[in-house]
Amino acid sequence: QVQLVESGGGLVQTGGSLRLACVASGRLYSSSSMAWFRQTPEKEREFVATIKWSGDYTNYAGSVRGRFTISRDSAKNTVYLQMNNLRVEDTAVYYCAAETFPQYGTPGQLRDDYYYWGQGTQVTVSS
Length: 127
What we know:
mainly beta, 11 strands, globular
């Protein structure tokens, strides 16, 4: 069993930066997948970024590529999302997700690719 707890959300102005953290309790493995998704009342939960726990693979949604960076600290069982040059459209509840034993080697971009989910943290970007 894995439990995920997000932190770091808040209010920031357009162009600002924020760093989210997700602490995982429970066992993760080098082949495990960790990801960030986000959701607004108007949209379905959408993929933001993913990382293989080994750290040798990352992927990003096109809307955040070049602005956001996902990373992990295996010693702390923590995954981060560094968000730079934030835009109003980045406003959402951000969720951390984990899959301990992915069926395939490459971390997925679909909600169903992840079994464990955090409670979410609100990110609000003001103009």
